[in-house]
């Protein structure tokens, strides 16, 4: 029976989640405060932690950081309100497995838990097939061209972009298009490996080299031999590890902790970061290592700067969620498509994917309508622009029937015409080329006063 630790100070919420998960066959331990967490982790062999953000004596983010330091492979699911989605995004950077937003949907929670328990070592895997969507925005098209150009070479690639923009997916694509495609793709989350063990995790160790080294261990670098090593959040590497890594890359060989023997290395490095590594004052990153991994740089822009990609990725995530939940949702209502276009997407593709997954799960018809989005998302949509003032902001590629599109445009045109002619309906009707009666009927239909 899998053991879950639930950290939630709202007792009614805690009780609800606990009883639901117990019914699903989990053994659930719970606490309300940060200071109680480690007592449980030491006492029980916990398989998964679920933590709320606001706790009486601290935050879920602090809990997450402490857990990642002491138990790097323990999965943590982070709960937050939608209005705090930036915090949830930060939690992903610190190493949360996933975030879900309140109000919690039990099915979504269960799905996320099952996924977390299934993926043993989330960030380290052999190369695998993935459905890679090529965005249609100019910036993504350019990125993809660069990916195709650099993939067949052995150049080190540095991917720079906000969390959730698709850096790991791009890294996997580069690997898949390279001559190393049949070799391993090893993804290491440098933010999630503990500082004590990072040397041994990356370079391996020999038996007896330190207390606890009960056998020989192959490190990630050696594990990636013949393939690609993806170093995510590379800015988090300790200075001492940076030097060792630089040496290994220059010498093309690795020495295990406690050994003098050199193991030859044939790996390609792809690194990712969301910080400015060149700015040493800020990042504390070795410039020589920076130049070694930055043989080819790809900047991945945030989703809000390539809005043309939203509809394509939406379609993809809807299909993916349909397959996951056995649903047949075919897209967004025009209103939701419009909200999506305006939203700032600080969690980028990951946030879009999570939102869609939740909506598809809840959908009872074949459309994602506003009522399926978290209330906070609509209340505080983090609109990047003000409300649209012309039809150009609607894209014909937004999902929606012709009638829905037409109605939205009609409503906007009527409002604008009324404003233009200071609510003189005869003039507005004449301007729009319709008669007054039609204008009145349409105003009534759209609730225009
Ligand atoms: N090109 C793509 N095609 C299909 N899905 C994608 C693509 N890029 C990203 N995704 C989806 O978005 C999610 C986030 O992408 P990814 O993990 O690559 O982002 P990231 O920039 O590496 O994030 P982080 O910085 O937090 O590690 C993925 O799990 C995947 O579902």
Describe the model.
- By secondary structure, the protein is α/β, with parallel strands linked by helices.
- The protein has 4 domains: 3-118, Response regulator (Rossmann fold); 138-301, 3-Layer(aba) Sandwich (Rossmann fold); 304-393, Helicase, Ruva Protein, domain 3; 402-445, Orthogonal Bundle (Arc Repressor Mutant, subunit A), CATH 1.10.10.
- It is 43% helix and 15% strand.
- The chain is built from 19 helices and 16 strands.
- The chain has helices at 11-23, 37-43, 60-70, 85-94, 106-118, 138-150, 167-176, 198-203, 220-223, 239-251, 280-283, 287-293, 310-325, 334-342, 348-362, 375-379, 402-420, 425-432, 436-445; strands spanning 3-7, 27-31, 48-52, 54-55, 58-59, 75-81, 98-102, 157-161, 185-189, 228-232, 253-255, 262-264, 268-273, 296-300, 331-332, 367-368.
- The strands form 5 sheets. It has a 5-stranded parallel sheet, sandwiched between helices. It has a 5-stranded parallel sheet with strand order 9-10-13-8-14.
- Helix 13 (310-325) packs across helix 15 (348-362) and helix 17 (402-420) packs across helix 18 (425-432).
- The radius of gyration is 26 Å and the shape is globular.
- The N and C termini lie far apart (60 Å).
- 37% of the residues are buried.
- Mean pLDDT is 86; it is low at 121-128 and 383-394.
- The structure holds adenosine-5'-triphosphate.
- Adenosine-5'-triphosphate binds at residues 92-93, 131-133, 161, 163-169, 232, 272, 274, 316, 349-350, 353.
């Amino acid at each position: 029976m899998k053991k879950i630790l639930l950290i939630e100070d709202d007792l009614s919420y805690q009780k609800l989640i606990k009883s639901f998960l117990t019914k699903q066959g989990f053994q659930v331990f719970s606490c309300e405060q940060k200071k109680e967490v480690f007592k449980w982790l030491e006492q029980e062999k916990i398989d998964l932690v679920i933590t709320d953000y606001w706790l009486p004596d601290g935050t879920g983010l602090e809990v997450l950081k402490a857990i990642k330091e002491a138990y790097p492979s323990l999965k943590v699911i982070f709960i937050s309100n939608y209005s705090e989605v930036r915090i949830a995004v930060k939690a992903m950077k610190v190493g949360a497995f996933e975030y879900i937003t309140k109000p919690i949907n039990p099915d979504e929670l269960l799905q996320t838990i099952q996924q977390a328990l299934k993926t043993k070592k989330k960030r380290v895997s052999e190369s695998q097939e993935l459905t890679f969507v090529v965005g249609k925005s100019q910036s993504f098209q350019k990125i993809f061209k660069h990916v195709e150009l650099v993939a067949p070479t052995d150049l080190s690639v540095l991917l720079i972009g906000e969390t959730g923009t698709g850096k790991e997916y791009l890294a996997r694509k580069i690997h898949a298009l390279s001559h190393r495609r049949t070799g391993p793709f090893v993804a290491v989350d440098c933010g999630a490996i503990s500082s004590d063990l990072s040397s041994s995790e990356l370079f391996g160790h020999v038996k007896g080299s330190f207390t606890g080294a009960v056998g020989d261990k192959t490190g990630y670098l050696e594990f990636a031999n013949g393939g690609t090593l993806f170093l995510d959040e590379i800015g988090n590497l300790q200075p001492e590890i940076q030097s060792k890594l630089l040496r290994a890359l220059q010498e093309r060989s690795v020495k295990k902790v406690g050994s003098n023997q050199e193991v030859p290395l044939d790996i390609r490095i792809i690194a990712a970061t969301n910080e400015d590594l060149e700015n040493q004052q800020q990042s504390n990153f070795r410039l020589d290592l920076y130049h070694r991994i930055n043989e080819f740089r790809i900047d991945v822009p945030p989703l809000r700067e390539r809005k043309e990609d939203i509809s394509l990725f939406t379609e993809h995530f809807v299909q993916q969620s349909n397959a996951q939940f056995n649903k047949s949702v075919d897209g967004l209502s025009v209103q939701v498509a419009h909200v999506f276009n305006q939203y700032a997407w600080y969690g980028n593709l990951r946030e879009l994917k999570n939102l869609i997954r939740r909506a598809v799960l809840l959908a009872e018809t074949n459309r994602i309508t506003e009522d399926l989005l978290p209330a906070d998302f609509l209340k505080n949509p983090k609109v990047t622009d003000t409300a649209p003032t012309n039809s150009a902001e609607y894209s014909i590629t937004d999902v929606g029937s012709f009638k829905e599109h037409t109605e939205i445009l009609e409503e906007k045109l009527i409002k604008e015409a009324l404003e233009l002619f200071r609510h003189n309906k005869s003039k507005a009707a004449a301007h729009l080329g319709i008669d007054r009666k039609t204008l009145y009927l349409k105003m009534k239909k759209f609730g225009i006063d």
